[in-house]
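Intended use. Records such as the DUF4169 domain-containing protein entry shown here are meant for training and evaluating sequence-to-structure methods. They are not intended to support clinical decisions.
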Amino acid sequence: MARAPNYDQERKERDRQKAAKKAEKLAAKVAARERSKPEAEIENETPE
């Protein structure tokens, strides 16, 4: 016998996976931006 679909749970799981992928892409973008910065700009930044 097939189980009844739980659409709400499935939707939440897809949304969670999508958010995780988006966060991963954003982190990679930030890391790439930091790597591409010239050394002078990194030294001149004020620590927060």
